Amino acid sequence: MIEINEDERDALQEIMNISMGQAADALARLIQTKVSLSIPAIQAMSPEDFQGMINSLSNNWFARQSFTGTIRGEVIMSMHKDGCNALAEVMDFDLPLDEAATEELVLEITNILSAACLQGFTSQLELSTQLNMPAFYYPVQSAHSNEWSSILIIEVEFFIEQMQFDARILIGLSEGSIEQLLIPIKALLED
């Protein structure tokens, strides 16, 4: 199992808080509405626990976006279906959403949030990554990250109260990536 100490977790949480704030700001500018976010939650879990967490979000749409570079992993965005419709209305999509429009909206929001989150924390830690194109997916059809014995999950929830919008960004990092991520964090803690 991945081990990070309390100081490393606190430092990573602060770095992610800044990055996720940038992501919330990017979405808020797009829809001209205030976007709130939770404090980043960071936890190590097994692939089975992770799959259970994804399965618990049964009333959500999902997209995944892998990244490679100094660190590798996946950004997974889940968006509550009711919030998706409310967001579609604000973004001038034709309602009711058909399957193609739903996928387009979910992928667009995933790209905005994922890019801002990943760019925010990798630039703060001077890590290089490349974000691949997002893909819409159905979790029941996808076993996740079974090649990893454990996964570090960084989770942040974005919400817009007046439109019942609720989305989560989950960043899953593999064990080797955690070791690379902790190098600059440990250096920051030593300063």
UniProtKB/TrEMBL annotation:
Signal peptide: none annotated. Residues 8-41 form the CheC-like protein domain. It comes from the Bacteria. Gene3D superfamilies: CheC-like. CDD domains: CheC_ClassII. This is Chemotaxis protein CheX. The lineage of its organism: Bacteria, Pseudomonadati, Pseudomonadota, Gammaproteobacteria, Alteromonadales. The keyword Ubl conjugation does not apply. Residues 65-137 form the Chemotaxis phosphatase CheX-like domain. SUPFAM superfamilies: CheC-like. InterPro entries: CheC (IPR007597), CheC-like_sf (IPR028976), CheX-like_dom (IPR028051), FliN/MopA/SpaO (IPR051469). Keywords: Chemotaxis.
